[in-house]
Amino acid sequence: MKAIFDFFGESALGVAIRNSRYAFPFVEMAHLLGLGMLLGSILLLNIRFFGFGLKREKVSEVAEDLVPWTRLSLILMAISGIGLFASKAPDLWEQDRDYFYLKMSLLALGTLFHYLIQVPLARKENMTAGKLAAVVSLILWFGGALAGLSLEFL
Amino acid sequence: MLLSLCEWLGSTDLSTTIRESLWVYPMLHWWHILSNTFMFGTIVFLDLRLIGIGFAKRRVTDIAEQLLPWTWFGWAMMFASGALIFTSDPVKYYGNFFFRVKLVLMLLAGVNALLFHSTIYRGVAAWNEGKAPARARIAGAISLASWVAIVMVGRAVGYFQ
Question: Which pTM value belongs to this model?
Answer without folding.
Answer: 0.94
